[in-house]
Design a protein that fits this description.
eleven-stranded mixed β-sheet; Udp-n-acetylmuramoylalanyl-d-glutamate--2,6- Diaminopimelate Ligase, Chain: A, domain 1; UDP N-Acetylglucosamine Acyltransferase, domain 1; 37 strands; 4 helices; 2 domains; 10% helix; mainly beta
């Protein structure tokens, strides 16, 4: 299996390219501009989009990234279009994320469903039987690679589209799909890695699911504690930095970027699309809201609720999480 790991979606089949006008019609999007019969080849985020791609921009929080995007088209709001470069044609809509859900579904029509992998076979009937030490009732799907000196526990399913490096230990009752795991990683019992995230739009008749075409990347020397879940990304990847340790029952939602050498205690939860720097320590049962930036060398006390960005070299605690000295002063 040869993959371009710079791609957001190396495992998912792209149905493009599409003529931009026909794409908007297919997605039931009204557009007042008369675009040329340009083709767009993919959907991507502001940072990774090329001049053949379509991207989206829905919040001023991302205005600096919008200014630098190389995308040829961008779905955005009227009051945000000023932040985009002149080389990027604007598709003005009322709901950016709902529009992108429709467009992404056109490019990746199978990305909504996340059913079990019926291609999975007993590992004893695959070439891995001579390469891997494994327990009972282990299943392996298509498009899977496993490195040297790996262990896989009982009742574990390595579903399709997974790369596992060398010297890895996968526990019992684990499910992995749409994931790249680097060398020397331990995933303990009961984890679920690479399933779709919790992305949808509430609707009175039927909630509308957002396609998740990203993957999970777990870098070298990490440990993922028992019962933890790591969701794959929507339009970008969910990434765990090297030498990062997660305790039991930690939840990492879609698009999160966790830095190197982080220590995250039990029952911590992350909403989507937040970024953690390096050397971050988080106490048990803390929560981190979505679309936030937590800096390097940050310490977050157990049970805290992080709802704002946190700068480098800061210690915080409480809800909302504030500077530790202020928290102690206010709670004497």
């Amino acid at each position: 299996m040869i993959l371009n790991l710079l791609m957001v979606n190396p495992f998912f089949k792209n149905a493009g390219p599409f003529n931009i006008e026909k794409l908007l019609i297919k997605a039931n999007i009204e557009n007042k501009e008369n675009f040329k019969k340009d083709k767009v080849y993919n959907v991507s985020d502001l940072v990774t989009a090329s001049n053949k791609d379509l991207t989206f921009f829905h919040s001023k929080n991302y205005s600096e990234l919008a200014l630098k995007t190389k995308a040829s088209y961008c779905v955005t709001l009227d009051n945000l279009s000023q932040f985009l470069p002149s080389s990027c044609k604007k598709i003005i809509v009322k709901s950016v994320l709902l529009t992108m859900a429709k467009i992404t579904k056109e490019f990746y029509p199978n990305s909504i469903v996340d059913n079990f992998d019926n291609s999975a076979k007993d590992i004893s009937k695959t070439p891995f039987k001579k390469k891997v030490k494994f327990g009972k009732n282990v299943l392996v799907g298509k498009n899977v690679e496993i490195g040297k000196n790996c262990l896989i526990g009982h009742n574990t399913i390595i579903e399709k589209n997974v790369i596992i490096g060398s010297n890895c230990s996968i526990g019992s009752n684990v499910i992995i799909r749409n994931t790249i795991i680097k060398d020397n990683v331990s995933i303990l019992d009961g984890c679920v890695v690479g399933k779709k995230g919790f992305g949808f739009f509430p609707n009175n008749e039927k909630n509308i699911r957002y396609p998740h075409i990203g993957i999970v990347i777990i870098n070298e020397n990490c440990e993922i504690g028992c019962g933890s879940t790591i969701d794959r990304g929507s339009l970008s990847n969910t990434i765990i930095g090297k030498n990062t340790y997660l305790d039991n029952q930690v939840h990492i939602a879609h698009n999160n970027k966790i830095g190197d050498n982080c220590i995250i205690a039990g029952q911590v939860g992350f909403a989507g699309s937040s970024t953690l720097g390096n050397n971050v320590m988080i106490g048990g049962q803390a929560g981190v809201s979505g679309h936030l930036k937590v800096g390097n060398n940050v310490q977050i006390g157990g049970g805290s609720g992080v709802i704002n960005d946190i700068p480098d070299n800061t210690k915080v605690m409480g809800y909302p999480a504030t500077n530790l000295r202020e928290f102690i002063k206010n709670n004497r």
